[in-house]
Known about the structure:
Elements: E1 26-27, H1 39-50, H2 53-56, H3 64-74, E2 81-84, H4 86-98, E3 105-106, H5 115-121, E4 126-127, E5 148-152, H6 164-172, E6 179-182, E7 203-208, E8 221-225, H7 227-237, H8 247-258, H9 260-283, E9 286-288, E10 295-300, H10 305-314, E11 317-318, E12 320-321, E13 331-334, H11 338-353
Parallel strand pairs: 1-11, 3-4, 3-5, 5-6, 6-7
Antiparallel strand pairs: 2-8, 7-8, 9-10, 10-13, 12-13
Bound molecules: pyridoxal-5'-phosphate (PLP).
Pyridoxal-5'-phosphate binds at residues 31, 86-88, 112, 152, 156, 182, 184, 208, 210, 216, 221.
Amino acid sequence: MREWEKNFRQVEPYTPGEQPDFPDMIKLNTNECPYPPTPRAAEALRELAQERDRLRLYPDFRAGALTECLAHYYGLTQEQIFVGVGSDDVLSVAFLTFFNSEKPVLFPDITYSFYDVWAELYRIPYERPALDENFRIRREDYYRENGGIVIANPNAPTSIAEGTEFIEDILKHNRQSVVIVDEAYVDFGAVSALPLLEKYENLLVVQTFSKSRAMAGMRIGYAMGHPSLIRAMNDVKYSINSYTMNASSLVCGVCAVEDDAYFKECCARIMRTRAWARDRLAELGFACLESSANFLFASHESIPAKRIFEALREKNIFVRYFAKPRIDNYLRITIGTDEQMQALVNALEEIVKG
Length: 354
Ligand SMILES: *Cc1c(COP(=O)(O)O)cnc(C)c1O
């Protein structure tokens, strides 16, 4: 090792789902929306391209237009909203801002696998209480002293959502630390913790445009919470890079929030397809956990998940497989269009019966 290499920060990075790109593939492995975003976004991008001066200038570092329209949409003030480059950026800033205690931050053993990456990167102590045998979060595990709590609701990759009563119970038992609820999938049938913001100044709700608003490519995420939390996050953000939200993301984001009918129709469609796919998978011998997300977490009664994952790959159908303890016999299958899901079912039928 060269002398200076001893000073490198050692990190084990997050591994995103693979991004294959060839014709005729069916990509159900990163929980993207199978439908394009609102057509208004494309229009806004064309307009932006006509005003080249807006590209020459720095964007609004406060992301004013977007925070304002989000505030209006959720009935909050702009001081209660933080926006970032996808919710990964928002969560990363939140970890850096709020988790500076000697006490461990708590999140489940099976959850979004970026949480422990940030904890390691920022040298935050953490513990991961185990989900129960049905992959549910045990609330009692969060009744002890801690330096913060992170709950993905619905959880990933399990797809299971808890109700408001559950989240409030965790808040009631944790008045001394920041509780982050990551609602990346909340629009697919779960209930948001947002109404609890009025009662709990230590609650931060994080959402994203990547899944339900069909804009993973634009990288927009946001957090909602008490102005004192948002202010603290902005102080950290402006200490790293003020201009994170680029001009094109800002205009597209506003369009996505404004076209509420399109957004709702998109979510409703995905939920209908989810119910259909779940039934077809059951007929083929798969058990799916109860999903409130845009994906199913499925396990077959006799064929190992890894083998199915590989067989699907051969057929150019990509789903996600995690070679991790407890979940290594499950597939995480993003809900695609009806046609894509029919093709998946046909392929699985061949694999199961072949
Ligand atoms: C997808 C996802 C995110 C991050 O998505 P962004 O594209 O960065 O907004 C955060 N949390 C969970 C649980 C997710 O599944």
